[in-house]
Amino acid sequence: MTDTNKTDRHTIDINALGKKTIGIVLAGGRSSRMGTDKALLALNGQTLLQQSIDRLQQAGCQQVYVSGDYPGTLSVPDQSANRGPLAGLQAVLKDERIQQCQGQALVVIPVDMPTLPAIEIKRVVEHREDFVAFKKSFFPLKLKLNTHLVQVVDDLLANEDRRLHSIKALLEHLSTLWLPLPEQASLFANVNTPEQWRALLRHKSAQAPSK
Length: 211
Prior knowledge:
Elements: E1 6-7, E2 21-26, E3 42-43, E4 46-47, H1 48-58, E5 63-67, E6 74-76, H2 85-94, H3 96-99, E7 105-110, H4 118-126, E8 131-134, E9 138-144, H5 147-158, H6 167-172, E10 177-179, H7 194-207
Parallel strand pairs: 1-10, 2-5, 2-7, 5-6, 8-10
Antiparallel strand pairs: 3-4, 7-9, 8-9
Helix pairs in contact: 2-5
């Protein structure tokens, strides 16, 4: 296994934002804990999916693909049901449109991280390392598209140990540069349940200026 204990050395690639960067929104899965499709939940008049696409574009992604079946987007339906985000990523990596982008940076975020700022997504883009992620939250993460990445994903999902079928396991099998979470770590929180969604709406409502 490669070294997974690297930390942020502030090795910024000043040319990174000038290169083609591809965004990926992980939006597949059943949203079973939420009870409805999280990607289509509306916040401030926009779906979480559209907000995720917009943030990736704001962070410098020229194209944004969606893991899941969503008409009107560059979507890639899951090839295997109920196998989690890593299987969704695998489907995107094998899409012929993505296969033509070998050597380019992929920036991946989940659809259920609605308070993630675009500036934090840009942080992973700016690093010259091939594989970059945030400690604890993992997302947003940067992956260099190459045959090694695809092979690692394939090998993990082919393993009978389902504990390896995860984004965490993928990052542990790559030479990942780990960035520390900022002081406002709550910005990286996922919204997975109706209770968490209602808490987010209450928080947003409390922040809104009074009329």
